[in-house]
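INFO  loader      accepted 1 record
INFO  loader      residues=136
INFO  predictor   begin
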Amino acid sequence: MPPYLAKFKELKGTNYADVSKQARQVFKLIKVRTKRRPYIRSAYFKKQKIFFDFFWQHLAQKRFPDRVRRLRFFPCAIELIAKSRIHPDSMDNPANKSEILHRFSGRTTSNQLFYVQVKEEKRTGKKQFISVFPAK
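INFO  predictor   done
INFO  writer      dumping tokens
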């Protein structure tokens, strides 16, 4: 499948403080829409909610250079989840058989390829935004 073409460029900055500040501003726009847990609605999953509970925890486990590399694509990942109808690569989570991992691919306006991972619980159908990362 061809990757989704995002309208946003990746965030600019060379250190974690610069990129994190910009990414948190984008996240704040999502967070103020609800009183409870922040979420975005996905076009691919028929406007179901995708929550951010694990994204920031997952990011905190990474080293600072890797955090910067991943956070640069945060606005593009939000757009991809919200607007993309392109089928992802889906597979059972090897660590937990009760989960499905969906990997969406996208391109920025500067032609950078990136991937977005969404985890879905089989039993409840809840979806979590796990990670965004550039292609190697």
